[in-house]
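Anyone able to model this chain together with 6-O-phosphono-beta-D-glucopyranose?
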Amino acid sequence: MIDPKVPSINLRPSDYVIIGGTGDLALRKIFPALFWRYLDGQITSDYRMAAAARREMSRADFAAMLRPFCEDAFGTGGASEDDWNGFLDLLSVITLDVSSGEGGDHLAAFISERSDPARPTIFYLAIAPSLFGDATRLLKANGLVTPQARLVVEKPLGHDGTSSRAINAELAEIFDESQIYRIDHYLGKETVQNLMALRFANVIFESLWNNNHIDHVQITVAETVGVDGRAGYYDRYGAIRDMVQNHLLQLVCLVAMEPPSFFDADQVRDEKLRVLRAIRPLTAADIQCGQYQEYTQELGEASDTETFVAMKLAIDNWRWAGVPFYIRTGKKLARRASEIVITFKQRPHDIFERNGGGAIDSPPNRLIIRLQPSEGLRLQLISKEPGPGGMRLFPSELNLSFDDTFESRLPDAYERLLMDTARGNQTLFMRRDEVFAAWDIIDPVMALIADRTPHLYRSGTMGPADELLGTDGRIWVDPHD
Ligand code: BG6
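re: yes, here you go
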């Protein structure tokens, strides 16, 4: 067993201001993540946190509202009431109306009370993007846009390339790109980062990682949930904008990118950008959309929004020419599982064929990277069945389960990302040009499917995309439990 707890690198006590501090994102993700970091001793008593919200609220009321979202920390994390009270001591609640600017002076007063003026101040905009302009102007008007200030924003950063450029231009009027942290929470997932370790800290895979050896790549992000409670948002976005434009394209980038010279924010992002720019424009035949049968009933009206999509991507460069990347994601599928499957080419020649080994029908080698749940790696190989009586072969698996290898829990993506904002490390955040390049791929896709009606699929299946691979003589490798 390995205990992955390591000393904090380059962290200095910081102030976190969550604007929209009583909203869903803040309660479900941001504050619980900060509490876990506090429990692990990474957030120390010299940090400060503020929940800034329009509604006036006492700290006790805020704490009562937040508590149910932190129950995990009390259960598996073993948090005590003392821990909770210690965490709350670092927390302030500030009344702030971003639209009218009212309360900006309270926020400025909170910031000015810090012990060290050079400490980082992280402003997390957990509010609708339509309020980003007001929020950044409010920060500026109150003298809070200092060199130590960092701004965290999250998708949806626009509905298409044009609106994304408008939102980002608004941010850029006030903050420098080096101060802006655009969250794609998939990049904060442990296994997603491990993908970079797997590729660039080992030689054995990297030497095979190209079109000489790889037949094709599949990326599946399957969810069992529907659009419960978010139908209003979801129906305007759909699976392509909600998941592919960001999470799935980022995964494609990490699988396909060239090794950067250093694990440095700009070098990593330069390489990812090159991948995005090398993706060939899709044709209608490369896209398969679906909608789960109950969707319109849940929504209460007719809709052609896709709740499932599969796409075939081609990456036009020397490494990947001729290697299709099939990606799919959807709601209400058979299981919640995200996997990357690298299928290697078949053996060029089979020496066992005539010995009755049956190897000729055996599956190719596959590397399966399970992102969630039950994070781990599996390498599918062909082995000899033990015992005398000829050379019988069977598919076997080398299985590296991170659950079994590491002693402590794998932290939630937000924990890692929040601490990176305090560290000033932008490696796992999207740069503006990456976001635009992703929209440049997605905008034409949306135009191609504009007049299509998605295929209906039954909940609990893996969606209607068999044909996309079938025409290439391939099949999906479905995640199993
Ligand atoms: C979000 C999407 O970005 O990611 C949701 O808006 C989706 O629709 C979610 O459910 C999936 O995240 P995770 O971490 O549960 O895989």
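Residues 187-412+430-470 form a domain with the Dihydrodipicolinate Reductase; domain 2 fold (CATH 3.30.360.10).
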